[in-house]
DNA sequence: AACGCGACCTGCGAGC
DNA sequence: TGCTCGCAGGTCGCGT
């Protein structure tokens, strides 16, 4: 669901509301949303109550809040040893939302976790995690040192620490520290199709099914194009396309078809009006139409999900070659 | 080691 | 009306 632009919209919204505030109470309404917190809901709540939120940072689609003043470290920690840095991690999965709400607002149908925050003038007092499909979730994670410059993303204060659970995630194309050379070298070493590689968060992060199709369309490349035959110019074109489409989507407040994808204030983005490939089965390819040609966008199953392509300007690679 | 599939969930609309 | 099916923007873990 939410891909990089949607998660970044949430991060930007959240940071102004929660930075510096203390979590005073935690209500876990559905423990399934804490599936990745191995120690259970009581441990989760107990460690959060009294903690202060230092920032909101992101790596790919993972979002986390480094915390201060978390309760005492575990009993087996050596005396005098500083408590390990801890963060509240959030992943929105396919349908997760993080919403700032006033206490009087009725519980959302799929409200899973409520964090009550210390009062602050003119600011909502609750941060709510709402998730219909429960593919997303919240959990606590350690922050571990990284030599790669920190979470990067578009964090205001990139720390030289990264959430352990996100340490396998590559940088995203909008990250100033993203290295095209590294990406291209690793891409060429793979024996797989281009779209599968674009969706691999360990190779390049933030791209999901919508923006992969948009970037491939823009770059005139087919999703099954073998990565080990990609020329540098092809890879650069599709990466630049991903960057453009995600930058535009970010400026529009993200893509959303319905109320499932909203910012922290509950508002939807407008980027769906700008989509050229995703969801356009049966409609004319806009680029072909502009050139006076008629070509109908098609939808195919790939990786158990839909892929939208123009049969004319994104021809399927033949016998493993271009 | 890397690839590719199935599992994890709920809800909606289409078709019968 | 009510059932079934297919579909939905992600990630992880397993088998090969």
Features:
DNA-binding; 322 residues; 23% helix; alpha+beta; four-stranded antiparallel sheet; six-stranded antiparallel sheet
Description of the molecule:
- This protein has 322 residues and is an alpha+beta fold.
- The protein contains seven helices and twelve strands.
- Mean pLDDT is 91; it is low at 153-158.
- The longest helix is centred in the last third of the chain and has 20 residues, at 232-251.
- It is globular.
- The strands form three sheets. Strands 2, 3, 4, 5, 9 and 10 form a six-stranded antiparallel sheet that branches.
- A hairpin with a 2-residue loop joins strand 3 (57-59) and strand 4 (62-68).
- The protein binds a DNA duplex (16 and 16 nucleotides) through helix 5.
Task: Offer a quick outline of the entry.
With 322 residues, the protein is an alpha+beta fold.
Topology (elements, then pairings):
Blueprint: H1 4-18, E1 23-28, H2 40-48, E2 52-53, E3 57-59, E4 62-68, E5 86-91, E6 96-101, E7 111-117, E8 126-131, E9 137-145, E10 161-163, H3 180-188, H4 194-198, H5 209-218, H6 232-251, H7 286-290, E11 298-302, E12 305-309
Antiparallel strand pairs: 1-7, 2-4, 3-4, 4-5, 5-9, 6-8, 7-8, 9-10, 11-12
Helix pairs in contact: 1-6, 5-6
The chain binds a DNA duplex (16 and 16 nucleotides) through residues 1-3, 6, 32, 35, 61, 91-95, 110, 131-136, 190-192, 196, 199, 201, 208-211, 255-257, 260-261, 278, 303-306.
**Helical run tally:** 7
Order of helices and strands: HEHEEEEEEEEEHHHHHEE
Category by helix and strand content: alpha+beta
Report how far apart the termini are.
31 Å
Helix share bin: 10-25%
Low-confidence stretches: 153-158
The counted number of beta strands is 12
Instruction: Report on the biggest sheet.
Output: 6 strands, antiparallel
Strand content: 15-25%
